[in-house]
Fold these 2 entries.
Entry 1:
Amino acid sequence: MSSRDFEKQLRKYLNKVSGFEAMVFAHHCGLIAVPMIPVNGDFSFLKPHHQNKALEAILDTLDLNLRLLDALTVDTKGKQLEVISFASLENRKKSINIAESDAIIRSTHDVRHYSILVLKEAYISAIAQLREFTFEVKEAAKNAATCLLQAAMFLEKSGRFSFGGVDHTRNYLIEVLKSWVSKTYRPAMLVEWYGSQWSVFQKALERENCQYWAKLFFSSFDSNFSFDLEGVNLRLNVPMETKARGPRAVGQFLERLSGQDKTRRLNEARVLILGDKGAGKTTLARRLKNPDASLPEEYESTKGIDRIDWVFQDEDLKARIWDFAGHVVTHAAHRFFLSERCLYIVVYDGRTDNPDRLRYWLNHMKNYGPNSDAILIINLKDPHLPQLPINLLKEQYRIDHVFWLNLGKDTNKLDRVRTHIHEYVRDHPSWQNQVIGAQDYAVKQELENLFGIGGNKNGPELISREEFDAMVKKHKASDPEELLSMLHSIGASFWYPDIEGCDTLILNPEWITDGVYALINWLANKERYGILQSEFGQAFRDQLGDLAKIRFPDAQHGFLYQLLLKYELAYESDLEKKELIIPHLLKEDQPKEGNMPVFQMDDLYLRFRTNAPLPTHMISQFIVRHHHKIRTLRKQPLVWRHGVILKDSQGSVALVRSMNWKIEVMVKGANATRMLSSIRESLRDIFDGYIAQEPNLEYQVWFNKWLKEEDIQSHVESKVPYFDPDTKENRDLTDQSIRYAIQAQSVVRGLQTHQRQQEEGQPSFDMEKSCVNLQTDLGDLYRKLKRAGADEEAEDIVEIQEILKDAEGLTDPKEVKKTLGKGLYRFLEELNEEGGHLHKIVAGVRKGKAIAQDIAEQYNYLAQWAGLPQVNKPFLKN
Ligand SMILES: Nc1nc2c(ncn2[C@@H]2O[C@H](COP(=O)(O)OP(=O)(O)O)[C@@H](O)[C@H]2O)c(=O)[nH]1
Ligand SMILES: [Mg+2]
């Protein structure tokens, strides 16, 4: 059967089935495509910082389809959309796109690319079915089948895939459709069809610690794709925080769940109240819990955060209300501590008549809880009705409901507000069904009681590992470490296995938030941005009075110091007296003109542009990550609240600053391209941590002409020059793409003509980039080891870095093999020796494990090309 005949046949039969059946067919194609994706034996084509999201999309999209499929057969239309919230659909689309773009960038159009496209089409068909666009459903189903065939063709070339190959695939797909039309038998799809690709797939999943998914795919094929909806629902209702940690964590969570007697609903949500001072936040917080509560007096103005637990007795459910005050930087910090089950309430004083203040808080919320809804309370302290563009705001923000009332007087309306919030917390579709195992739940409950969360405030702030283990035993839960990570991720208790001295303690999360916020507020009040550890005591006394000694004794200041670093809220100054600098508290304005670097037309310029104000914390996080490269002028570091000047060892200079809705980067000097690349990747990585939409990336290609990255890429890729409407000239963008190190395939290929002929499906390889990445990671590890006093090990790294520097220019894999053969490989092997000296030291330093894993990954990537042996990723449990 030719491709054209195949398409004809597809169309013919798809026309005879319903939209629903076409969607099921597309889903079917997706399921068959997934095992082809790790064609080279792993998922390393996904960029490290995309791995979780993209892998989750690959493994989980089909579940979302199944859920849609089920909703379509059972529920009413309105209900369907509610069940599958728009946020999760949007996130899914983005994640598949990420996986797809990685597949394209790391290879030519090949198995990976086409098999991910099948998934995407399956997803599109499901969404189209939900909206009842039957024509689109069928188009997507047809595309899914043709892409699957493309993938199969590429796979056949690899020789790994044997069982009847492409012809069999075509016939099988047509037979499936026919069977739907005639509603008779359904042909079986066997794993044997994949030949050895099946075991490649299973191994790739094992390598990612995704055994759970390996089993799932196997049983799915084994039962000829009949699915158990209960399993789908369990998977889709895994707590969001666990989901965000990727498919490994989800698999572990589910395995853990299956080992417990029963499940219990996660029974609390957080309600965060934001708004200007005096708007009525505290009034609302108190009256939600108790409608008869007295109004707060003027002098009672909230200092830090007040927390009030509003318990719905009969449903074993509670809303934990956070009444915020204090410096906004404390809001920036809370995204690190709070779980994702959040509802925001913005309170607005009706007398203000300044809608911009409302926008300010709505933006704030959007930055820190992009998937959360807001309820607006317009507090009518007097009869005057303010003019507010509510309809417009509803279009721009996720506003669930708006209430207009006098919080002090309107008892009936207050009742309505209370009912609404109660129902919201109880029924919110994306967390309503989230459960954990009953034994785990019992441990969580006991911990919370002990810490006095929502009640007795005299509880301890931390317990030892022994006490925790005893608790686990008492409630017959298993694997305390796994439980600790789970509790940590849902914000029930905090555990930091990689902070020395802290690894044996289980902490009350509210102790950490209160401590961090007290320090920040203390500094903000004093208009300072830096604090010594020896000043912590004073700060706590000033903020908390007598409670300071009890809650934050001197012995525990060190943890809080470490935590501020860990959460990238602060960095340690390089000066002799180790001071913590909180970039968010630095002065607003940039240095004066004479102290700013001057950039010329032919320097490098890029910018990230967003369609909403950027979270101010983003640039702070960037500053923290790059603080050791801050340029100084007459001993003054050139850094301010919204930007920083960086330098590298070869005299290149960069300016990175955030302005309104964009981040600007300018770089000059010998090493500019490389410096720009590293800044760009770092910003992307930070953006990625905020769930909000990834911004547009643009480059200045010639004077005042800015082009989007994907446009440059596609011009270079398709070898079509760019037509400049201003000068009416055609201009080639290849040079620009090299200057900015934008990965377009033809550029990569152009640069690597000297490399060995690329086999079909082999990723292209950039030796220089690979060496630079390795050196950066090794550099990080070096500094950490030095600080930990492991001089000898640090020296080994210096040696390896020297070798890497020499190897940067090599183009022949054989030579690379010779040069790099020993040092780095041996180092990584040593790192892998559990109980070995190096293993222990690296495990003990902050982020040591993560860096070591990155190094191993980078090395494996290089090794694959050079024909060197692969290493295991250190510190991963097998
Ligand atoms: N008359 C009147 N006073 C109110 C109302 N809401 C709040 N207040 C008063 O306004 C002041 C500030 O309110 P508060 O809840 O502390 O504001 P917050 O700073 O946003 O927490 C307090 O003295 C309240 O008693 C209202 O609806 N009517
Ligand atoms: Mg207040």
Entry 2:
Amino acid sequence: MYGVILGKNPELGRAEFFAFARRFGLKVRPLEESNNWIVFESKPSVERHFRWLGGSLKLIRIVGESEEAIKDLEYARLFTVSLYGRDDWKLWRKLGSEVKRNFKETGPAKFFKPAKVYSMPAELILKGFPEVKDIVFLFRNDGSFLVGETVRVTDPFELKKLDVERPVQRPILSIPPRLARVMVNLTEVKKGKFLDPFCGIGTVLQEFVLQGLPSYGSDRNPERVGEARRNIEWLRREFRVKNSARIEVCDARKLKRCFRERFDAIVTEPYLGKPLKRNPSRGEAIKMANELDRFYYSVFESLADVLKRNGRVVFVFPAYRLRDESIYRKERGWLGKLGFEVLGRYLDYEERHRLIRDIHVIKKRG
Ligand SMILES: C[S@@+](CC[C@H](N)C(=O)[O-])C[C@H]1O[C@@H](n2cnc3c(N)ncnc32)[C@H](O)[C@@H]1O
């Protein structure tokens, strides 16, 4: 039995986790869920694949339930304690001391205090995880709890490197590498040809290449294409990957002129309109969304030309936070007319842009 701790957008993290489980054939069977964790049965290969998740933080092997389970934990000289579902330092100290007492029967044991009542992956890695253990308590609403040990963490340093160490960076223009990873999982496509037709400086392409997928990208702007190529060359050197990407100058409305391939999955964040200076009114948001939709309509006509039947598109549409703080989210009935089916929609807030990403998971009908 395992548990997964979801990251800062749990709804998106949950959708990604189940998509990832189907993508890698992990036979995940959920047993219990709270707002930031899921407990499940699955194949042990979840441990090997876990590094490819973007929206989760930790994978936990569940040892048992309540204080009883503490004696079944494996010994560690140095450890920390993470509580989920309770924000209580007194309880943290009490459970930590119980674990320590138990470990002391085997050898010397010490535990350290994380910044919150739970440790974050970066803290754990810096302290020496996995030799340094993270003992986890998952609290249910009724106060009962599960006990486990963290066996994998997603690596924030790798994601950071993909972002800030590459030769070309454009913080305003590009999608966070973590989100690119989430979007690739949302396709549920494990093998096959992947395309990003608005590749910009190549963040999504970096993820395709890193995962060893046959990778294709395009952008209308030749400068961006040159920059994406430089970033991919850097990635291949730094991460020692043999795989590469074919990147073309191409208008996303004319893809079949540039690619003879047929793709299994398209993952992209397109042009989302001009950056906003303030939250728009409802009327302004509707106007912007309608104007952009004319463009997206021709883009989807073009995607239909190069996507295989039953192929997947993970596409960021804009949604808007309005002046009254409510959210305007458009319905796009025209997708159905073009032969697409929307399988899921997830919001992700982008602080810097005042814009909300409305991530659509879409299938081209067979
Ligand atoms: C939001 S950026 C994509 C960022 C990219 N996902 C990344 O993280 O690096 C949008 C890109 O779309 C390109 N673009 C705009 N209109 C286009 C069109 N009609 N066809 C192809 N690319 C276009 C722009 O040149 C820009 O690089």
